[in-house]
Amino acid sequence: MITVGCPNCTKQYQIPDTALGDKGRTMQCKACGEKWFCTTQHIIMPELAPIAPEPDPWDAPTPATMKEQAQELVQSAISHVVEVAPVENAVTSLKRAASAADTDLGSDSDAEAMLKVQRKKRRMDVVKDYLTPQWICYGLAAIIVAVFLLLPSSFVRLNASYAKIYEALGYSINLEGLLIDNVITRYETQKGTQIMHIEGDVTNVTTEIKTLPRLKIYVKSSTGTDIYAWVVSAPKLSLLPGEAVRFKARYADPSPEAKQIHVKFFTSANSRK
After folding, report:
1. What DSSP letter does each residue of 10-63 carry, written as one string?
2. Which of 260, 201, 200, 219 is nearest to 52 (CA)?
3. C-beta contacts of 75-83 below 8 A and 24+ residues apart
């Protein structure tokens, strides 16, 4: 069922989802007698909070994790460097050892130079420990995974079959290579009734012309339970390669229980959900 409101007296009525069809129909208000041509623009929608980001379903490192790993790598490298005492104490120790061995180290500058060479050698040894093929492979794999997760559109443009992977990870890319993103909500009050507007972009991320399906908007509670869902027509029939189009929908008198909104492409799989 969907809720529509009289534009004259704001009286609300519950009607079946299919009552309006794609073009709408004429309705008359029983309260005030007003007649109007009712379309999806008259559907009353609950108030929604901004969409909470969903957790990354992959165990692969995210950019934040990669940064932490890089910091740990640097700290580990530093911890392998031998802590050298102040130069004065090191010079004294070297001279003492040289004296005991009956060896002349020469001036303080010679001892300091030797100490610097030793420290540089130890640092190079630490760097070599991490510049192994294994560590290089780990680093490259982490970078590739991060780029793959951050740039879904670019990868789907290269190969449309990647869309299936992104769908499994929870990205809003359907199997035809269409991307839903930049979804926002804004509010306004009309004749004492709060109206929530939903907007977002649909982008063709392939190199082919794509037919644009209808969109299904889900209203959910804070626990993820479906409260209400409805289908809106696509703003265009098709999209050229790389083309994006803005879709819009609105909901009047939002329910206080509605906390999240999800937008997906309408398919036979979710037609009854």
Report:
1. --EEEE-TTSSTTT-EEEE-TTT--EEEE-GGGB-----PPPPPPPP---SPPH
2. 260
3. 77/126, 77/127, 77/130, 80/122, 80/126, 80/129, 81/119, 81/122, 81/123, 81/126, 82/119, 82/122
Q: Which residues of 90-120 are buried (b: 16+ CB within 10 A; e: fewer)?
A: bbeebbeeeeeeeeebeeeeebeeebeeeee
Helix (H) or strand (E) holding 262: strand 260-265
Which of 51-65, 158-172, 242-256 is the least confident region? Answer: 51-65
Let me know how long the chain is.
273
Provide the residue type at 69 as one letter. Q
In the numeric block, which tokens belong to residue 200?
């977002």
Strand order in the sheet with 260-265: 226-232, 215-220, 260-265
Report which residue type is found at 36. Answer: W
Would you place residue 105 in the very low, low, confident or very high pLDDT band (cuts 50, 70, 90)? Answer: very low
